[in-house]
Structure formats: C-alpha cells, structure tokens
Specification:
Bound molecules: 2-acetamido-2-deoxy-beta-D-glucopyranose
Number of strands: 8
Strand content: 5-15%
CATH architecture of the largest domain: 3-Layer(aba) Sandwich
CATH class of the largest domain: Alpha Beta
Structural class: alpha/beta
Number of domains: 2
Shape: globular
CATH superfamily of the largest domain: Alpha/Beta hydrolase fold, catalytic domain
Order of helices and strands: HHEEEHEHHEHEHEHEHHHHH
Strand order of the largest sheet: 1-2-4-3-5-6-7-8
Oligomer: single chain
Radius of gyration: 21 Å
Length: 392
C-alpha cells in the first residue's frame, strides 16, 4: 500500500516536471467539434457511420464509402495500433455487430466520409502479440526477404486488392494512415508496394532515420518508378524521446524534396463539454460535466483543465469516475478499460502522449489533395492495379 502510494506520488512528481517543457499553444475547439457548444458533427452524425464487416481469406476488413451519388475522392487505408483493431473505427451496427466505436477513430472515419473518401480498415493478423503489426523495418531487400504469405503487408494488400477491384475503385487515389504500430506499418508500405500510395500519414511513430533515402536509392538504381509519396507526420509533445527522430525524418524528406507535413500535438485542457463532443453515444452532456467535476474534485485536472498526470500510469481517474457514480448515457456502465475506453483515449490525447488524434485529419487531407494536384499525372502513384489478380 505504502509502496503503491510512493510510486503514485513519484509518477505525479515526474509528470509535473515534464510538463514544464512541453507546454504548447491552446488549440480552441474546432467548429467541427462544436466550438463552445455541446454538439459536434460527430455527436450529431455518428448514426451515418456503418461499417461493412468482411473477412477476405482470413483478413478482417471493415469499410464504408460515402453515399453512392458522391464521387470518390480517395480511399483511406487505416492501420490501428497495438491492442486495437479495425472494429474501433465504427459503432456497433447490424452490418458490423462486433464494431467497438472509439471516438478518435470514429471521427476520422466520419470526416473522411464527409470529404468524399472511402475508409478501409484492416486488422493485423497477430492476435497473440497484442495485435501489433508485423514490423516493416530495415532496408527494402530485407523486408522482402522476410516476407511470406502470412506477412501482414501481403494480407493487407490482398484484402485491399480484392475490395478495390470488386468495388471498381482502381482509378481512385489510395492513401494510408496509421497510428503507433500501424504508423510504422504504413511508413513501410511504399518500400514493399512502390507506386501504390498517393500519401502516407503516421501518427506518433517516426520512420527509421535514412528510411526515405533508402527508398530513393532504389528509385535511382532499381525499377521503382514512383517517388516516395507525400508524407505527414503527427507527433505528440510528451513523446519526447521520439521528437528528435521526427526532426530527422522531416529534414530527410525536405532534403529529398518530398512533400512533407509535420503536425505537433500539445497538451490541451479538458472542458466540461469536451467528452460529450467526442465520446458518443456513451457520454452525454450531463455525464461530461459530471466527469469534469469528478476529475477536478479529485485533483486529476488543474484549475485550467490540464491533466496533472499521465492517465496511462496514474489511473486514479477511473476510481474518481466510478466513485462519483457516473453512468453511461442511457444508464449502462461506462467503458473504462485500458485501450478499450473512449474516455481513456480522450484523456491520453489531452495529455499529448502516444495516442491517436483525429484533429490532424483536416490538415492531412488538405495536404494530400494539394500534393496530388501538384504532381503531374504521369508521376502519380498508380494505386492497386491488376498485378495481384491471382487472389480472388
Ligand atoms: C474530428 O475531426 C475533425 C477533422 O479533423 C476535427 O476538426 C475535429 O476537431 C475532430 N473532433 C471532433 C470532436 O469533431
Ligand atoms: C490465403 O492465405 C493463405 C495463408 O495466409 C495463403 O497461403 C493463401 O495463398 C491465400 N489464398 C489466396 C487465394 O491468396
């Protein structure tokens, strides 16, 4: 008991110390998120989210396209982080009974759809090792040498190929966005699938230094025809160890004249309505204000709403919510488990430590669209073409 207390105090103290170095600007709540009001686009339109669950040769794939009369602007392939899966991007519906609906994921799906993008999420095959993706690290030759028919990238490629051909999306630009383990995965994809992706976005995982140079070396000497795709890197202020690697990545991309976007994410304050704007349908306005009050009373947030400690390490926030007797909207239990809780996800994001964020999506899609428009047609990525047609 005493030891646990000391450990907690220690974690709190070190959290305070780090805080001094990571302070960034306060980002006002976006219009999409509801500004100062309780209703976000997500909280009003999440009913439009309806994933189609399919299994292609053992690979779990969930997807949705914008309404049939909307021309498709692009396809966004999403790669989850460890401990997560494709089911997090959609709420539970008849067409996806196992969907789990986490807020940042669902907001990415919704805003991609609203902009005319189809969203395709695939689950990694590795159920035993916490659902992390098979790493795509190292030089291209080595990645290819390590590949077999069970490799995640081969399975993801087969699923994408099957779906894109069946739905007739071959002419539509294909982009990839991944978070954490999924970020490393999507940063590896152009190495093994050159000329396929029109843009890559990684949230919280940088590429190995010299990764882009390595690709461009093959571009120069091998048969690779398409330059490394435009790349967006989203990193969080508290992932301090990684920030140096992100800097190296950005310098490398700039030197190679590859269009690059850097999006830093800073700690933000919790507001009384913050969770109602995001954790739909689980947290309503009353619940959101009650949680805010409970965390304030328990000292988990300071007077301005900033988190006083890392919610992954100091989990007292759970007891504060439970002890305050707060229920989900409609009366059920709130989901509070690690990596399986809307509230937990939002607290991690507010703390700006290793979490998915949908905040950067607008910037990322703007960046992809601008980069595509600036690329001469003959130099653009070709998407998934007919070369893997053996898989039906
Ligand atoms: C959802 O994503 C959009 C687009 O990036 C962003 O503007 C908004 O703040 C996000 N969150 C909510 C709750 O709308
Ligand atoms: C289905 O997956 C298995 C193993 O993952 C692989 O050996 C096989 O070639 C795949 N089938 C097709 C038609 O691609």
């Amino acid at each position: 008991m005493a030891l646990a207390l000391i450990a907690t105090a220690g974690a709190l103290a070190s959290a305070f110390e780090v805080q001094r170095d990571i302070q960034g600007p306060i980002m006002p709540n976006s219009q999409a998120a509801g500004g100062k009001g309780p209703k976000s686009i997500l909280s009003q339109l999440y009913n439009q989210l309806s994933g189609t669950y399919e299994v292609f040769n053992g690979t779990e794939t969930i997807w949705q396209r914008p309404p049939a009369d909307t021309p498709l602007k692009g396809i966004l392939f999403f790669a989850h982080s460890c401990g997560h899966a494709a089911k997090d991007l959609w709420p539970r519906t008849e067409s996806c009974p196992h969907c789990f609906g986490l807020p940042e994921e669902m907001n990415i799906t919704l805003h991609s759809l609203l902009r005319g993008y189809a969203v395709v999420a695939v689950s990694s095959s590795n159920k035993h090792e916490n659902s992390c993706w098979h790493g795509l690290w190292g030089p291209r030759d080595e990645m290819l040498r390590r590949t077999n028919e069970r490799s995640d990238w081969v399975k993801a490629r087969a699923a994408l190929h099957h779906l894109i051909h069946r739905e007739g999306w071959q002419q539509v630009p294909l982009y990839a966005l991944g978070v954490s383990s999924g970020g490393g995965f999507v940063l590896g994809l152009p190495m093994v699938m050159p000329g396929v992706f029109s843009g890559i976005a990684s949230v919280v995982t940088p590429a190995f230094p010299t990764h882009f140079q390595e690709y461009m070396r093959h571009y120069d000497v091998d048969q690779i025809e398409t330059a490394w795709p435009p790349t967006a890197l989203v990193h969080m202020a508290r992932d301090a160890v990684l920030s140096g690697v992100f800097k190296l990545n950005m310098a490398e991309l700039q030197e190679l004249e590859i269009p690059a976007l850097e999006v830093p994410v800073y700690p933000q304050p919790l507001t009384p309505l913050y969770l109602a704007q995001r954790c739909v349908p689980e947290v309503d306005e009353t619940g959101s204000m009650a949680i805010y009050a409970a965390l304030q009373k328990g000292g988990f947030i300071n007077a301005e709403g900033y988190l006083n400690a890392n919610p992954r390490l100091v989990t007292a926030w759970r007891d504060m919510i439970i002890n305050a007797g707060i229920k989900a909207a409609g009366g059920g239990e709130l989901r509070l488990g690690p990596e399986a809780s809307p509230i937990s996800e939002e607290l991690n994001l507010l703390y700006a430590s290793n979490e998915l964020t949908s905040e950067a999506l607008t910037d990322i899609l703007d960046f992809f669209e601008k980069a595509l428009a600036a690329t001469p047609v003959e130099d653009r990525a070709k998407g998934i073409t007919g070369e893997y047609l053996e898989w039906v």
